[in-house]
Specification:
136 residues; alpha/beta; Rossmann fold
Length: 136
């Protein structure tokens, strides 16, 4: 495997002490031999999680900057698609799998690119496995 889809839930786990896990650490180690691709929503989701965490006093502003520095050093490529076609496909997938459109964006990207999905979200993981997408 040389590429995988990185769900924001994994990136956020690296940023918050209380969310880190062995599974998240194993995914981080994949960057020694692989790169990640993410949908266009990823930077917004990660940024929002960091800001909300800061506002709730779970992370300090300096730690937000450190987290962003870590993420920027990783080989993560943001992929954008055709907005109208993507939204229709995302809604259909989200409807069929009972996911949010945000989560469907990660699943659809993994399906289209034929690569595994790295997620900490159990609902998204179950949907991915149900439709035949490999989960890391």
């Amino acid at each position: 495997m040389n590429r995988f889809v990185l769900d924001a839930s994994v990136a956020v786990a690296w940023c918050f002490e209380d969310e880190n896990s062995t599974r998240a650490d194993r995914i981080l180690e994949l960057f020694t031999t692989a790169s990640a691709i993410v949908p266009a929503i990823w930077p917004v989701e990660v940024g929002n999680a960091l800001l909300v965490g800061e506002r709730r006093k779970r992370i300090k502003p300096a730690e937000v900057s450190q987290s962003l520095g870590l993420l920027c050093r990783l080989d993560i490529r943001v992929l954008a698609g055709e907005p109208r076609a993507d939204v229709e496909d995302l809604i259909a997938l989200a409807r069929a799998e009972k996911l949010s459109v945000y989560d469907a964006a990660y699943l659809l990207l993994a399906m289209r690119e034929g690569v595994p999905l790295a997620t900490m979200d159990r609902t998204l993981e179950h949907s991915a496995r149900r439709i035949g997408v490999q989960v890391l």
